[in-house]
Structures are given as structure tokens and as C-alpha cells.
Design a protein that fits this description.
globular, binds flavin-adenine dinucleotide, 4-stranded parallel β-sheet, FAD/NAD(P)-binding domain, about 25% helix, disordered N terminus, alpha/beta, 24 strands
């Protein structure tokens, strides 16, 4: 690991320096944009790749090999001329704008916190499969699904949970996507009538953050596909045989996929940074951490402000990264202007079904859901390829994408 060849614990440079921790959507885009703004950048992440979560549902269904959902950070760092260090960050200090890596404290002029969140762990969650957090989870679920399909029949339950301490840290969209993709897979194999599928969530109307129309359309589609629904009852936990609900009810299943809501990253929660009730870093509209000059938090690790239906998403993580880079550049040049992420808070996604998709968009003024049979599936696949190629500078960046 080479952080500072001089051996000093500080990143000394002739230009302003930034230490970005976390190599996901937020951290990588921060590193790229800060570098473009003329800042010397070191990106530290605990794995050598960015995991492209939005296309990871197809690892589970076997439509994409795992490496295709990974973006090599070392390669991207070389192309954008920043330093990449693969190592877990052990501690953060806002007061010292530093991160502890391999027992050594490293600081910079600017510290950008982009460690994401961490999934909550309800009782018995080890009996479920998850596709958030650990990327290897998608491979484990693929193996379990293949084994069940090979058996020829079974019961599959999929769902997601919430975090009342910060309702924006929820992952409903991917849970619906995976359920629709598994339904499509079983139909293609001629096995759908031999599998019982159930979708569960504690909310009375899951998916409502995407808008009332979208939630209604999703319910209609689940019903049309013969997928049972268990909504509106608190999830107490899981056991080896299925899902346990408040009041003693249960849902037996051979395979359970559960996407828990998130909470603050443990390294963030152990730090001196200000946090909301769920442990996400408090930031102002410009992604600056109040009371800690030169410290910024972006993406899932930050406590989002905005409308009640706001949700943590990859595209918003990238918006926050661009806002941060612009504000760091302004601060370095002693210019007073500050960009804000708040006007960009919205929900945008292509909700994939395996044989099509729906374009979902919500902002302050509009709620849209446009069905895109067949073509939507290929559009989402195209986005995945574009995302990786644009980060590798093989194709130009399209505005807003
Ligand atoms: C299955 C799934 C599908 C999704 N689909 C969509 C979608 O279609 N559209 C959309 O906009 N959003 C989608 N999302 C949400 C989106 O993926 C997240 O909002 C986004 O990943 C947030 O980016 P981030 O960089 O803030 O956090 P993360 O992506 O979580 O990145 C955090 C990074 O920090 C690194 N890290 C963690 N701990 C340490 C440590 N101690 N030291 C160093 N590094 C560390 C991790 O390796 C990781 O790379 C989806 C999420 C999931 C799980």
C-alpha cells in the first residue's frame, strides 16, 4: 500500500488534496469529479471493484456473470489519474479530516465520506438471502435458486423491510425487480405453475415512495402474475422455514430473499461525525458536514433531506458527488458559491421484470410510470454497459446519466 511515499501521515501535495473513503457510486464519482477539478485524489475502498448493484439482480437469475457487474477500480483510477488503495478504513475522524487505514492515520485537505450504509440485521436474517451489502450474496442466492429450480417445485418468498429511524434507507425497487425476474425465469423454464411465489413487506402499500400510481401498478402486476402478497404486518424475524410476522403468523418458504433497510456504517457510527437517528452523517445542502470544515459526506452514508418520499439511490449518490466536487473546488479557489443537491432529490429507475421494464420517475411536480415491454429490459442492460464504459472513459459521459 502506498499512501504517501514520504512516510508522513498526511497527504502532502502541491495541489489541494482529497481523501475519498468508499469506492461505490458516491466515492468513485467524487474521485473522478474532484480529479477533474484539479484536486489530488486518493480513493480508499475495501474491495477492488465497484459493485453495480442495479444490474446485480441478473447475477441471481444467471443472466449475467458476476464479473460483468463489477467495475475494476484500479483500472478506473489509472484512467482518471487518481490513487486507489484497496484497504478497509478502520476509523474516521472529522476533527482531523482523517481515516485510519492499516493502523495508520491519513489526513487530507478534504475528507469525503462515501462508505454507504449497512443493512439492518433482524432476528434470523442469516436464514435469508440478501442482495444488498455483500456482493457475494448474489452468488449464494443464485446457487440456492438453481438448486430449488432443479428440484422442480417449491415456495419462494421475497420482500423488504423499513427503518423507522430513517425511512429513506429502504430498498423496495430491487426486491420487486428480483421477484419479477424470478417469475420470468420460471415461466421460461415452463415451471411457474409448480412454484408458489409470495411478496412480503411490513408497509400497507409498499413501493409508495415511487408514487401512488407506481405502487398501484406494481400490485396489479403481482396479482396478474399470481404472486401472493403479505403486506402491512410487522416482520418479527426469520427461521429456517420462513418468515415470522408480528402476532405469531408465519410464511413458510423453501427460499427467502430479504432486503433489509439500512442504517449508518459502523465506522461512521463510531466516529465523531454528527449523525441522524439511523446513524447517517448529517450534511447541509452542499454535502458539507456542519462543524467540520473540509469534511463532506455523499451517497448512502449521508442523511438525506428533502420530501417525505425521498429514497437513497445510486443516481442521487452521483449527484451528491458532483455537488461535493464543485463545492470543494469553490472552497479551494476561495469562491463563495455553493451547489446544492436538494433540487435533484427524486426517484428515477428502470424497474426491470426480466422481459421488459417500467420507467419510474418521481420529483416534486411529477409522478410517472411508463411501461416499456421488452425494450425496457434491454435499456437497463444498455445502461449497465454504458455505466462501466463511461467510467472507463471508453464512451463520453451523457448529461444526467
Ligand atoms: C440490489 C440493488 C439494486 C439497486 N438498484 C438501483 C437502481 O436501479 N437505481 C438506483 O439509482 N439505485 C439502485 N440501488 C441503490 C444504489 O445501489 C445505492 O444507492 C448506491 O450503491 C449508493 O452508493 P454509495 O457509493 O453511497 O454506497 P455503496 O454502493 O454502498 O458503496 C460504499 C462503498 O464503500 C466500500 N466500503 C464499505 N466499508 C468500507 C470500509 N470500512 N473501508 C473502505 N471501504 C468500505 C464498499 O466496498 C462500497 O464500495 C440498488 C441497490 C441494490 C442493493
Amino acid at each position: 500500500m502506498l499512501l504517501d511515499p514520504s512516510g508522513a501521515a498526511r497527504l502532502h501535495h502541491h495541489m489541494a488534496s482529497a481523501l475519498v473513503v468508499g469506492g461505490g457510486f458516491a466515492g468513485l464519482e467524487s474521485a473522478i469529479q474532484l480529479r477533474q477539478a484539479g484536486i489530488e485524489v486518493t480513493l480508499v475502498s475495501n474491495r477492488p471493484f465497484l459493485f453495480v448493484y442495479p444490474t446485480s439482480i441478473w447475477v441471481v437469475t444467471g443472466e449475467k456473470p458476476f464479473p460483468e457487474v463489477c467495475l475494476d477500480l484500479r483500472d478506473v483510477a489509472r484512467r482518471h489519474a487518481f490513487q486507489f488503495v484497496e484497504w478497509p478504513v478502520e476509523e474516521l475522524s472529522g476533527a482531523r479530516r482523517s481515516a485510519t487505514i492499516a493502523g495508520r492515520e491519513v489526513s487530507a485537505d478534504h475528507l469525503v465520506v462515501a462508505l454507504g450504509g449497512t443493512p439492518l440485521r433482524p432476528k434470523g436474517v442469516e436464514h435469508t438471502h440478501g442482495i444488498s451489502g455483500d456482493p457475494q450474496g448474489s452468488l449464494r442466492m443464485k446457487a440456492a435458486l438453481e438448486a430449488l429450480v432443479a428440484r422442480g417445485s417449491g415456495r419462494i418468498a421475497m420482500g423488504f423491510g423499513g427503518n423507522p429511524a430513517d425511512p429513506s434507507a429502504v430498498r423496495g425497487g430491487p426486491a420487486f425487480e428480483l421477484m419479477f425476474n424470478v417469475d420470468t425465469l420460471l415461466r421460461r423454464r415452463g415451471l411457474r405453475d409448480r412454484f408458489q411465489l409470495t411478496f412480503f413487506a411490513p408497509m400497507a402499500s409498499p413501493g409508495e415512495r415511487m408514487g401512488r400510481r407506481a405502487a398501484g401498478a406494481i400490485r396489479t402486476m403481482l396479482g396478474r402474475l399470481g404472486i401472493a402478497m403479505r403486506f402491512g404486518t410487522r416482520i418479527d424475524g426469520f427461521d429456517a422455514a420462513g418468515v415470522l410476522f408480528e402476532g405469531g403468523a408465519r410464511l413458510d418458504a423453501d427460499l427467502v430473499m430479504f432486503l433489509p433497510a439500512g442504517e449508518g456504517h459502523p465506522v461512521v457510527r463510531a466516529s465523531d461525525l454528527p449523525r441522524n437517528a439511523a446513524g447517517f452523517v448529517t450534511v447541509d445542502a452542499g454535502c458539507a458536514v456542519p462543524g467540520f470544515p473540509g469534511v463532506w459526506a455523499v451517497g448512502d452514508s449521508a442523511a438525506l433531506e428533502g420530501p417525505a418520499w425521498r429514497a437513497k439511490q445510486g443516481h442521487l449518490a452521483e449527484v451528491m458527488a458532483r455537488v461535493t466536487a464543485s463545492n470543494v473546488a469553490a472552497a479551494v479557489a476561495d469562491r463563495p458559491e455553493r451547489a446544492s443537491y436538494l433540487p435533484h432529490v427524486g426517484i428515477t429507475c428502470l424497474l426491470d421484470t426480466g422481459n421488459g421494464a417500467a420507467y419510474v420517475h418521481r420529483d416534486d411536480e411529477t409522478e410517472r410510470m411508463i411501461p416499456l415491454p421488452v425494450v425496457g429490459h434491454w435499456m437497463k442492460k444498455g445502461w449497465g454497459a454504458y455505466f462501466k464504459a463511461s467510467k472507463r472513459k471508453l464512451v463520453p459521459r451523457l448529461p444526467g446519466l
